[in-house]
Amino acid sequence: MLSVLRTTWPLFLGILLLMVGNGMQGTLLGIRGGIEGIPTFQMSVAMSGYYAGFLLGSLSVPALIKNVGHVRVFAALGSMISSVLVLYSVEPNWIWWTLLRVIIGYCFCGVYITSESWLNAGSTNENRGQTLSAYMIVQLLGIVAAQALLNVSDPGGYTLFIVASVLVSFAFMPILLSARPAPQFQTIKRMTFRQLYRASPLGCVGIFLIGGVFAVLSGMSSVWGAAIGLSVAQISIFVAASYAGGLVMQYPIGWISDRYDRRKLVLMLSAVGAATGVAVLAMQPGTLGLVIAGALMGGLVNPIYALLLAYTNDYLDQTDMAAASAGLLFIYGIGSMGGPVITGWLMEVIGPDGFWVYMGLLLALLTVYAGWRTTRRRALTPEEQGNFAVITPNATTIVVEAALDEKQSDPSDRRAADAA
After folding, report:
1. Are 146 and 20 in contact (CB under 8 A)?
2. CA–CA separation, 37 vs 15, rounded Å?
3. Which of 279, 370, 409, 414 is the most exposed place for a label (fewest CB within 10 A)?
């Protein structure tokens, strides 16, 4: 992995700074909303705007890149991100913030697509696995580091917004000044949702539910923390713990998944996640207990997402992976948009506990559905499964396809069973 970093460090440095800026703005808005007295439901609408923008970007940015090129799209969207981060502090209004969150979600999606295209094109068959693994680690490290920066200034002012804007501006310098040619952008063929569902019902339903859980955990944690009176430091530690848990647990769970029925593993992890939500509601733990619960929830949700992608990939031909990943990410985006809004409504109705109720409910539904699916299709043997790929919910189609392709075994062994 060190050899990969030596050759691609400008790109990884830029990605790290991008993730720090993105990680700061998500948590900072939730904290600032509490300071400004913005109602929880209105804040949930604002937080969901990012996922709506990200979904719109995944649909339209590829065509934009094809028309004007990677460099122009990257520079234009990067400038917009830097501007939006400053504009947040101009008017602490939930409608204004919702609009800006849609814009910044769209822009970050485009930036991820272009940077991941450069990263994928610059790697070889020999180092692609290490490159993608390093990319995922850098992404999560950037978000974790962002939480520490939230404590350097008063979130009630404008300094932290400026810091995030400056970091994002700096992020584009090493990427745009590196001597890396723009890759050719391929148009992804489409797969209907019916075809995708027939290939993997659990993949489709599970990705939708996990989209809602992850959007709540990543987008509403600071809103929930402010609602129960946590300090800025406590909120930042909780958010950092949730992402750190996801980073740590990917690898052992991935190792197990290559040797075990992935449906049953999804079932067990979802059940533990649902039980975690119930435990928090029943015990009402202190700050340390909440941080542990956040780390556990993040350590479950991130691997479940990657597990569902790997499981779906087990039933696809290699030529269908790109179309399938695009369809799954669209389903994930739909689930992500609704998660914060429903959670915000629940928090208005039953109080801050609605944060844990919603995540626990979705994970309980996934547990039941995964259990039912185990009765509808025979389990694949380890030899028939492809290898687990570390993929975070922040990745776009470019990385999802490349990671699954790199981990895929002989295509003739992939379609080992027919849908029930």
Report:
1. yes
2. 33
3. 409
Flag whether pLDDT at 194 surpasses 90.
no
Specify the pLDDT at position 385: 77
What CA–CA distances, in Å, run from 173 to 3, 12, 15, 76, 169? 22, 12, 11, 13, 7
Confidence of residue 137 (pLDDT cuts 50, 70, 90): confident
- Does the pTM surpass 0.90? The reply is no
Sorted by sequence, the CB contacts under 8 Å of residue 408 that are 6+ apart come out as 313, 318, 321, 386, 387, 414
pLDDT of residue 215: 93
Distance of CA 90 to the CA centre of its chain: 28
pLDDT in tens, 289-324: 999 999 999 999 988 988 888 888 888 776 677 777
Question: Alpha helix (H) ranges present in 150-231?
Answer: 159-177, 193-199, 201-219, 221-227
Residues in Cβ contact with 93 at an 8 Å cutoff, skipping those fewer than 6 apart: none
Contact 277, 357 (CB under 8 A): yes
Measured in degrees and rounded to the nearest 5, phi and psi for residue 318 equal: -60, -35
Between CA 344 and CA 332 the distance in angstroms is 19
